[in-house]
């Protein structure tokens, strides 16, 4: 097994940032399209956008960012990824609800905060549960 150095970890964090940034752009664009063009509720719009970006994120993460543990089946890895993504969605929805309905901040600003928090959660959980140790 290859020892993880600080340089490897830094490179992995950078790759995760690129994938996460692209997923965020997909998420943010779809959120705006659902809310502004289709006039869907902000929480439904956030859920739809999040779901689509998770599919992209999964494919990019297992292909480019993480050295996925091959002892687990692809199905098991996907289930783990989706399970943590659902938790991320719940965190996103809570933050979106509090920010937009209670504090009354623009959904566009709240989404950026929610994404930053969920991105940290995602890196930690994927590192711990999907990656080869």
Describe the protein in words.
- By secondary structure, the protein is an all-alpha fold.
- It has one domain (6-129).
- 81% of the residues lie in helices and 0% in strands.
- It has helices spanning 6-37, 42-65, 74-102, 107-129.
Structure summary, number of beta strands: 0
Rough shape? elongated
Q: If you compute it from the alpha carbons, what radius of gyration comes out, rounded to the nearest whole angstrom?
A: 16 Å
Low-confidence stretches: none
Specify the helix fraction band.
Answer: over 70%
Structural class: mainly alpha
Helix and strand string, N-terminal first?
HHHH
Notable features of this structure?
133 residues; mainly alpha; 81% helix; elongated
List strands and helices in order, with pairings.
Elements: H1 6-37, H2 42-65, H3 74-102, H4 107-129
Helix pairs in contact: 1-2, 1-4, 2-3, 3-4
In brief, what are we looking at here?
By secondary structure, the protein is mostly helical. 81% of the residues lie in helices and 0% in strands. It has one domain.
